[in-house]
């Protein structure tokens, strides 16, 4: 298994990407990595013992986090992001991972790898915490507007990944709406409901925003506009809860004593809700595997994004999506 790593990407670049990559190679004996970036920076960071399983692909450019996707696509053909995706296209890598500019990554990946037959547009999918585990949600920002057919395609892709990640035989798929009744919502979501209901998927119908966290659905389908707003709202709510708890537990010596008693439970809750655990969004629907890490990811978070790529390679996610579409 060989994964190309855009080692120059994200807020921290090589200082996070390389240590995380090396830790994954030590953890997984079947894994080989191609670190894509400035060779003069990368070569000295590779320990001698890992040399055969870690190689550097030198390139001269980096896509900026605020760069326009069209400029990254047209003007930076020797960027670490573009070269990593080209390696997947040529079959020299089984997947690639980047913490870089999301819009640029999506544009370059779609241009280079193209979409699978039966898929109109790629979608961004990630896990979010839920009762009893987590829920997969897509699209999280790639497509602001979607047709009913595209929402159906997202449901197929989401079900494949959920099944692969957790061995589910029939993941429960829900369509995000303003109510659970079949008459609710606009024409697009009602038409998508009909398509999903007629498919072979385990479709549970419309779900509402609070259902994302209940553990009663495994995959939540929505358009990228709604999905991205939902994701940012979740992140903001989590930050507000964390801030409020710290503030309340610092109000006087008695509260501080109570915080000390509750410390084990608070640590367990923090670990359970830690966004680093869920890092690694899949760009689904492409003729290849591309995983997007959060730009501010630390070493632990980037490792988890790499683990997502490893599982998708092991399970052959693009091939499974193609087969499921043919059978649905």
Q: Within the CATH hierarchy, at the fold level, what is the topology of the largest domain?
A: Isopropylmalate Dehydrogenase
CATH class of the largest domain: Alpha Beta
Largest sheet, strands/sense/barrel: 11 strands, mixed
The gyration radius over C-alpha positions equals 21 Å
Shape: globular
The CA-CA distance between the termini, in Å, is 30 Å
Q: Which structural category fits the helices and strands?
A: alpha/beta
Question: What's the arrangement of strands in the largest beta sheet?
Answer: 3-2-1-4-11-10-5-6-9-7-8
Calculate the mean pLDDT score and round it.
89
Number of helices: 11
CATH architecture of the largest domain: 3-Layer(aba) Sandwich
Number of domains: 2
Estimate the strand proportion: 15-25%
Walk me through what this model shows.
With 328 residues, the protein is α/β, with parallel strands linked by helices. It folds into 2 domains: 163 residues, 3-Layer(aba) Sandwich (Isopropylmalate Dehydrogenase); 159 residues, Isopropylmalate Dehydrogenase (3-Layer(aba) Sandwich). Helix 2 links the parallel strand 2 and strand 3. The chain is globular.
Can you give keywords for this protein?
328 residues, alpha/beta, Isopropylmalate Dehydrogenase, 2 domains, eleven-stranded mixed beta sheet, 11 helices, 47% helix, globular
């Amino acid at each position: 298994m060989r994964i190309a790593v855009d080692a120059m990407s994200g807020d921290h670049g090589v200082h996070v990407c390389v240590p995380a990559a090396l830790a994954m190679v030590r953890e997984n004996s079947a894994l080989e990595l191609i670190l894509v970036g400035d060779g003069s920076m990368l070569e000295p960071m590779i320990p001698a013992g890992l040399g055969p399983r870690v190689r550097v692909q030198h390139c001269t450019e980096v896509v900026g986090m605020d760069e326009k996707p069209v400029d990254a696509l047209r003007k930076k053909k020797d960027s670490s992001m573009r070269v990593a995706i080209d390696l997947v296209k040529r079959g020299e890598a089984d997947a690639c991972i980047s913490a870089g500019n999301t819009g640029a990554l999506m544009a370059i990946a779609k241009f280079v790898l193209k979409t699978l037959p039966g898929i109109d547009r790629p979608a961004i999918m990630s896990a979010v915490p839920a009762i009893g585990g987590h829920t997969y949600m897509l699209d999280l920002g790639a497509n602001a507007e979607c047709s009913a057919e595209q929402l159906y395609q997202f449901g197929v892709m989401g079900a494949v990944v959920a099944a692969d990640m957790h061995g589910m035989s029939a993941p429960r798929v829900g369509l995000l709406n303003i109510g659970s009744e079949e008459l609710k919502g606009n024409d697009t979501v009602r038409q998508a409901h009909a398509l999903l209901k007629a498919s072979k998927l385990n479709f549970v119908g419309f779900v509402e925003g609070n259902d994302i966290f209940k553990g009663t659905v495994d995959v939540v389908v929505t358009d990228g506009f709604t999905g991205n707003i939902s994701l940012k709202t979740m992140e903001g709510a989590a930050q507000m809860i964390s801030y409020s708890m710290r503030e309340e537990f610092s109000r006087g010596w008695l509260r501080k004593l109570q915080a000390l008693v509750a410390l084990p439970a608070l640590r367990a809750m923090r670990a359970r809700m830690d966004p680093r655990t869920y890092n690694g969004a899949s760009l689904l629907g492409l003729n290849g595997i591309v995983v997007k890490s959060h730009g501010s990811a630390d070493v632990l978070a980037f490792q988890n994004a790499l683990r997502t790529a490893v599982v998708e390679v092991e399970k052959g996610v693009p091939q499974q999506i193609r087969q499921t579409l043919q059978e649905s």
